[in-house]
Amino acid sequence: xxxxxxxxxxxxxxxxxxxxxxxxxxxxxxxxxxxxxxxxxxxxxxxxxxxxxxxxxxxxxxxxxxxxxxxxxxxxxxxxxxxxxxxxxxxxxxxxxxxxxxxxxxxxxxxxxxxxxxxxxxxxxxxxxxxxxxxxxxxxxxxxxxxxxxxxxxxxxxxxxxxxxxxxxxxxxxxxxxxxxxxxxxxxxxxxxxxxxxxxxxxxxxxxxxxxxxxxxxxxxxxxxxxxxxxxxxxxxxxxxxxxxxxxxx
Length: 250
Prior knowledge:
With 250 residues, the chain is an alpha/beta fold. Helices cover 50% and strands 12% of the residues.
């Protein structure tokens, strides 16, 4: 048994406590770094009208997303088409390599981003005039977030004109007003179909609808801001519409 003078024993005790605290801090920082990667789900409008009118702007939105990806980040890409949530299939799902070797990670990143661009272009080039089921595509995105608990930073990026066209509702033929908004919320709540986007940052890029009718844009804006607020998502005017491109870049 060591018999140190009291002042030395006290200092040794303090040093031991500091060592334990430092080790604990290192564990916390290590865990934080592992969990700081992002998960981004991108939904792109697969309708022919959108692909023809918005292909260049849509690609610019995708590039804004890709520029922000870092090693360890995950990106899931899916199309907005006639798929219901029950049969929805995503087109691409990848996690960027994070080996700690910057050159290897950069080469891998370049290869993965090229494949993402090819898949994105394929969606736009095979767009058809069919349905544009935005609501169910969003519900499918919820499943990705639910199953991925290892990502702290979560983003949903919707690249679409936001004109929902499906068997349940058709925003191109129905007036998108407060009555329709209330009906959609009521019916989807009853069916348990409103996704939970708590802690998810939502960006809606390229929203427009009928560009020659400003009232159509604002009607869609009111609907989606109300609907997304019901999901618990983090969204505001800066992340909806044309301004969303700047917000994604940040």
